[in-house]
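Would you mind writing out a protein's amino acid sequence and the numbers that encode its backbone to help me picture the idea?
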Amino acid sequence: MRNVDSTAMRRMNKATVLGLIRSHRTTSRIDIAQMTGLNKATVSYIVDELINEKWVHEIGFGSSSGGRKPVLLRFNANGAYAIGMDVQLHSLKTVICNARGEPVYKRDSEIVHVSQPSHERLLEVIEEQARAAMTATPASPHGLVGVGLGLPGLVNANDGTVSRFPGLDFTNWDVRSAVAQRVPIPVFCDNNANCGAWSELARAPGQDSNVVYINAGTSIGTGVVMAGRLYRGRDGRAGEFGHTTVMPMGQRCSCGNYGCWEEYASERSLLRYIIEAGGDTLELEHEHDFVQRILDGAHADNRAYIRAFNTLGQHLGIGIANIANALTPDRISVGGTLSRAATFILPEIERIMKYRALSANRSIPITIANVNSVAVGAASLVLDAMLFDRSERLAEHSGAPAATLN
């Protein structure tokens, strides 16, 4: 067991107490002592520090079961903020979240590439929107603690590199360092599905501790939360269920394998299913947001589009049943561009689950994620890392120093 010095122990205790106060609408010093096992004097000292630092407010007295009434404590959700970004090849969602992970600002931006998509153009838009968000951030005692980027592809959260970004023809991009050179606040990076999973976990605090988030869009990404903690694997790249084989002699995938799940349950497979259903994709193939065009057509009763979405939902269901059988989570949440078609794909996913999931796993809820899950999750991971000393910390950040618990 690793030895922990007294300074580190005080920091951990302080983060634990602050995290408990944040997770409850109201609480008291005596409640915290009972929940943590810390003695009352230690809890009182920590709480007084947090009050002085404007992380916690005293809001009155609670009811007494004998003796003095306890002083009620409330977390100051507006004590600090973080920026979260959902970065895609042609679009960017930006949010500002307060210290409770609640969005106070949202902005969607289109990324227009003059010729071929490039990482330089992505960096320009990230900087532009980060600076706009910095200007829009409300005043607070601790200000902005950082910016989190939710990125597609193979992302190493430990060193901030992307070894494969779908649609860009290069590898091993040190995106964290590149962004840190452009914005004056700490920068964090993670896979977009991990960010989505972390955000979806917060939708049912204290109820679900095992959550799988599936980001279904240009590719398939999967974020896994086990026992309330993100599962990253050996090198921070765990969760690539999109590259599990569902068809041994199937379509060639961009990863070099054949028959990967994402070749049958992503945007590019949707175009193939339209052709198989007798439809025409000529006008769709060069549109960045062709999914919305197809969805509009499906709602207008275009039968080829409806059949294509149904087929896509069936293949999503196959992969989801495999995940359910392998991990037995409390909940599986589907996000990404294809989640907009929930009306057409969700019934097919649920139908496939009845046949392919083990009987004990057929009751696992399949939900549609919030549209801003990735961006909110990116901001929340930054807040948890910088303020609450969470083990999910996204390695050492790059950029200027920010507020932390001392």
Summary: The chain has three domains: 6-75, 79-197+373-387, 209-368. The chain has a mean pLDDT of 89. The chain has eleven helices and 15 strands.
